[in-house]
Amino acid sequence: xxxxxxxxxxxxxxxxxxxxxxxxxxxxxxxxxxxxxxxxxxxxxxxxxxxxxxxxxxxxxxxxxxxxxxxxxxxxxxxxxxxxxxxxxxxxxxxxxxxxxxxxxxxxxxxxxxxxxxxxxxxxxxxxxxxxxxxxxxxxxxxxxxxxxxxxxxxxxxxxxxxxxxxxxxxx
Length: 172
What we know:
Elements: H1 7-18, H2 24-37, H3 43-49, H4 54-65, H5 77-89, H6 95-106, H7 115-127, H8 132-145, H9 147-170
Helix pairs in contact: 1-4, 2-3, 2-9, 3-4, 5-6, 5-9, 6-7
């Protein structure tokens, strides 16, 4: 999938970085490819290619996203939760970690569900001593609630998987 290097895309890239869904091994070769394709690549892509530290990568992308001319974006809190869910689906984080992080992120932020949605699930999950049966029930509930956001972020995430695999292959 070819991305349009606009602020809307960069906004979603920033969310994937901030949520730790992707990191430099995912975006390094992608940045290099863009730099090779353009006579004058976007400056934020050049800067991103030169950093591995995720907080700096988030800063670089967000500096571009929130610079003039200003644009209004759809709420990013639900998309951030979707990124966390994808990390859970990849077995990168546990269900308890997903619930705790999603609750923390939605606490005080505008999201389709209140933070208590996740914290209540986490309390129930802990009270059942991390029952796999309850995890499956809760997982399905969260998936159904955030289905559009999960699908949207999956479409942005999927192309970075091949860049990650190529990076690993080239650096062994």
